[in-house]
Design brief:
Layout: E1 20-23, H1 30-43, H2 50-60, E2 71-77, E3 80-90, E4 99-107, H3 116-130, E5 136-137, H4 145-153, H5 168-171, E6 189-190, E7 197-198
Parallel strand pairs: 4-5
Antiparallel strand pairs: 1-2, 2-3, 3-4, 6-7
Helix pairs in contact: 1-2
């Protein structure tokens, strides 16, 4: 779906580097993408089972059917998957629009320094604006100088924002209101321990 453009391949950087093609995944990519996801989780020191990787890849390879389905792109080098980017839909964004958020971008370790990450970001930007989303946002580690340099080489700018996360381990023993749960319109109650809905009707 999203083929690389001549001006956006690593041929700009060095003539002996391979061309990068970026496209949407299909069902035939599940096993290869699962292998990439498993490597990514090992890299982040959060290893998962083979079955978990397969389930995640299966979800990533499904076609977009609904407004808030994730958008996924794969980068190929010489016919092999070299990296992936996962985009989530955020709402409301600017003027009550929808935007895309890069939830994760990962390049296989053996394929780094080839321009794969840059190709994925540029393809994500094309997808964002061709599908009338209002913006493409993401975060990265402040100390990751290489990633920041790559992102800024794509034209991205740093925003004056602070990134927050409220994790369950931060709340244990500190917040009484967590015990109350959240009741959904259908009467289900949000489980504070597992972030899942238990259907407990009154």
């Amino acid at each position: 779906m999203m083929d690389s453009l001549p001006g956006e391949t690593v041929a700009d950087l060095a003539t002996d580097l391979p061309e990068i093609a970026v496209r949407a995944p299909t069902g035939s990519d599940i096993r290869a993408l699962a292998d990439l996801f498993a490597e990514m989780q090992r890299h982040y020191r959060r290893p998962v089972s083979h079955q978990q990787a397969i389930e995640a890849a299966t979800l990533a390879c499904q076609p977009v059917r609904a407004t808030f389905d994730p958008r996924v792109l794969l980068a190929e080098v010489a016919g092999a998957i070299a990296g992936s980017i996962v985009l989530n839909v955020t709402f409301p964004a600017f003027e009550l629009s929808r935007a895309l958020y890069i939830r994760d971008l990962y390049v296989r370790q053996s394929m780094r320094r080839l321009g794969v990450g840059q190709a994925l970001v540029k393809a994500a930007a094309r997808l964002t604006y061709s599908q009338t989303f209002s913006a493409l946002d993401w975060t990265t580690e402040t100390g990751n100088a290489a990633a920041r340099q790559m992102y800024e080489s794509c034209g991205a700018r740093v925003l004056a924002r602070t990134y927050y996360r409220l994790a369950l381990e931060d709340l244990n023993g500190k917040t009484e209101w967590l015990r109350d749960g959240i009741t959904a319109p259908d009467g289900s109650v949000l489980d504070r321990k597992h972030d899942a809905c238990r259907h407990q009707r009154e």
